[in-house]
Design a protein that fits this description.
The protein is an alpha/beta fold. The chain contains 14 helices and 14 strands.
Amino acid sequence: MRYIIIGAGAVGGAIGGRLAQSGREVVLVARGAHLAALRAGGLRLRVPEGELTYRPAAVDGPAELGALRADDVLVLAVKTQDTEAALAAWGPAPVAGGGTAAERLPLLCAQNGVEGQRLALRRFRHVYGVCVWLPATHVEPGVVSAAGTPLTGMLHLGRHPHGTDDTLRRIAADLEAARFGAPVVPDVARWQYAKLLGNLANAIEAVSGPLESEAARALYDRVRAEGEAVLDAAGIAHAGAAEQKEARGDRITLVPLPGGPRGGGSSWQSLARGTGTIEADHLNGEIVLLGRLHGVPTPLNELLQRLANTFAREHRAAGSLPVADLVRLADEAERERGA
């Protein structure tokens, strides 16, 4: 199988680099300065064993590849807000022997949240969900770091909306050979919703920095409680903390890498890189949506969604709102909603 990594940033670059290291054929899809760097010098992957360089094909879209192969696997690793554009570009791509990518090829949604695979299923017949636990950073054009060892990350895999199949088991075997845990599960959404609850902290981190203070962690506890209440009201199951810890065990330990500490997660990185967009609409915004559908107030997640979008739109510095000010705004939001 050939793996086409659509969005070779932090997560996509780490997956693509490790697959290339294990001898799998990989194509990296990127744009702008990152694409130029990949073409000029290859992908530089900083991992605990050192900096590794791989030179897989790098393209900006399907046209450069001609007809896709029947054994291609598409790995969608763009941020959720960029999903529609990626699906529109890759879905109609022709496949050798007839048909299109949307009709014939497996599409793995290696993304935060749950919306990407919903969008994909409108266009693609064979959609797979991935619960991504992969601490990685897009350091600079052409450079990605992933600090986990002995495994680089944990990728729970399942068909969307449910089930498993032989294609998925073959993909899982390749990922496991590439230093990932890749459990194949029939209920991948249960793992993704558990990850979503953790990702509610992303907006806090993005606007006020890492959750290092007691005040920041206490605020996250309140935000998460909103999320759990919403999932309960919606009847949506999610994996518990003990189950998640058991799945990862001691197989993923983060170690310091050259070039400084990891600055923050995906939302923090979006602000730090000045992309102008952020995925809060599909993280905190997912909780807001479910809350509105099921009559559960979500003032804290509404606040974080609004602030994160404002920071991205106005190109404000990541982590520049003091935690004390964020807590004050959260208290005001709850009072206004009578929480």
